[in-house]
Amino acid sequence: MKINIFKNFGDKVKNNSFVKNYKRMWPYIKPYWFPGLMSLLITIPIGSLDAVIALSLKPYMDLVMIEKSIQTAWYIPLAIITFTCIQGGLTYAANYLNTWVGAKITNLLKSDLYKKMLSFETNFFNVRNSGDIIFMFNNNADMACSGLLTNLKNFCQKLFTALSLITVLFYNSWQLAILCVVILVGALLPMATLRKKVDSIMSKSIEADASLLTAYNESYSGNKTIISYNLSEHQKKKFNKVLDGVFVLKIKMLQRTQWVTPVMHIILSLGIGLSIWFGSFLILNGQITAGNFVSFLAALVMLYTPMKSLGSNYNAVLMSFMAIERVFDILNSTPAIKDTAGAKEMPAEHKLIEFKDLYFEYNPNVPILKNINLTVKQGETIALVGNSGGGKTTLVSLLPRFYDVTRGGIFVDGTDIRDFTLKSLRQNIGVVFQDNFLFAGTIRENIMLGNENATEEQLQQAVKMAYLDNFIAGLKDGLNTQIGERGILLSGGQKQRVAIARAFLKNAPILILDEATSALDNKAEAVVQKAIENLMRDKTVFVIAHRLSTIRNASKIVVINNGEIVESGTHDELVNRECGAYKTLYDMQFKCNTNA
């Protein structure tokens, strides 16, 4: 079942969180409040200058067209050109300031969102796809800041244009102006219903857009699988299905929002028609001049343009406001795994690690691990073996708190690991996975992630201990060789040795090896296994082993089947136990190897 991560925010607005979230925007706006304010204030003269053209038509009509005064004919067009040039310069300044401030505020918000994203636990990412994550932590910030400021500027500019033109209306004829203002208020009323209509469909639209991003990401990451299995048509159909869903939602959004503009268009056209009829009556009765009427009509027609698009701008501002709510819902959320009150630093030295009466479940009432009790002394190597899906990886994932136990606990020298700060706990644990993640960049940069303060000598020692020295010596750029996104330019064995070198630099006293050689061929495994043996020296090690021949010398072998420890002991003890779970595994693997 797809998990809906985008909630309906209507109820929260009713509970005043709407106003509270806008107050929280102030820390992001504060450093740039002055240029931001200027970008909005400039819209006042920009909008007001539109009234100059309409206002200038009255003297031009009365003096030139009616009284035939040619002396005034030259300065009115010159004034219009001058004011239009000023308006153009101010428009450029407003757009520049608006874009600059919007980008700065967006970057601040994205920085905090990224920091928040890094604080979430592993399960947060497990239940969400990549498109959801990108939309939550990137696209929402763009919509909240840049979109808001741009549309707010346009909204303000059109508002002041409307106010200045309304002033011209009253200047020329208060009777006609009152008629037009009444119609104008009626044209604005439909906007009051937009929020309610948009709320119900907005979350679905965001999910659909996030699904598109996921489709692109999957096609990029899985391009080899798509090619090798001839899945191009399948993926194309799947993508088109997502596109169809996006299209349907966009049409629904259009149906619920875009009717406002044509409705306003009709109402305002009615206003123009009534104004012409009533204005003609006023001229014939001598209450206004022809110049008044022409100036009035020009102002009314010019007012028509910003009012016609005001509904669209209001809709865009509303979308930005809703994005702000989503952003602060994320920033206000609390990670499930975090430092407890009074958490202390975990010491580098330890004597005993204990798993006591431990239970764990991903979903309620579906236990993955049951009644795990295990004691590990400093310097011991504990090998975890058993059937696939039995809970081995889950068990070692609880130690660095990728997940938290459901019941029971893990204790280091009598202290529950939840009482240590996450940073100090994880600093004391090194992990080498089966598929280690390498970042885009150089080999040096990836290894140095283990200890950014390591010396060149320490780096070279890590390279040597990971058996990377001969490989790097054959590269033109050596340690500065680019490895591509996710280390795509390296082989599996090379990636594993880079990860091992990184773990060497970290030099954590506790080490987790999660099937670190199972995906390698025999030749690569032999080299990586030597590197791992170097890494394991003087450490407390948890090994999840695929090939049982690699764990014969473990201090203790623990067999986990179906989430429970079924037996434990040394290799010699367990292999001589008739009908034992380990002996069965070992005999099966030995026979397979012999037959091979």
Provide a descriptive summary of the structure in words:
- There is one protein chain.
- By secondary structure, the protein is of the alpha/beta class.
- Helices cover 62% and strands 11% of the residues.
- It has 25 helices and 10 strands.
- It has helices at residues 10-14, 17-24, 26-29, 33-41, 43-48, 50-66, 75-119, 122-126, 130-144, 146-172, 174-188, 194-221, 223-228, 232-257, 260-284, 290-332, 392-398, 422-427, 443-448, 456-465, 469-473, 492-506, 522-536, 571-575, 581-595; strands at residues 352-363, 366-377, 381-385, 407-412, 415-416, 429-432, 510-514, 540-544, 556-561, 564-569.
- The strands form 2 sheets. A 6-stranded mixed β-sheet has the order 6-7-8-3-9-10. A 4-stranded antiparallel β-sheet has the order 2-1-4-5, with helices on one face.
- The longest helix is centred in the N-terminal third of the chain and has 45 residues, at 75-119.
- The radius of gyration is 35 Å and the shape is elongated.
- Residues 1-18 have low confidence and may be disordered.
Break the fold down into its secondary structure elements and pairings.
Elements: H1 10-14, H2 17-24, H3 26-29, H4 33-41, H5 43-48, H6 50-66, H7 75-119, H8 122-126, H9 130-144, H10 146-172, H11 174-188, H12 194-221, H13 223-228, H14 232-257, H15 260-284, H16 290-332, E1 352-363, E2 366-377, E3 381-385, H17 392-398, E4 407-412, E5 415-416, H18 422-427, E6 429-432, H19 443-448, H20 456-465, H21 469-473, H22 492-506, E7 510-514, H23 522-536, E8 540-544, E9 556-561, E10 564-569, H24 571-575, H25 581-595
Parallel strand pairs: 3-8, 3-9, 6-7, 7-8
Antiparallel strand pairs: 1-2, 1-4, 4-5, 9-10
Helix pairs in contact: 2-16, 4-7, 6-7, 6-10, 6-16, 7-9, 7-10, 9-10, 9-12, 9-16, 10-11, 10-16, 11-15, 12-14, 15-16, 20-22, 22-23
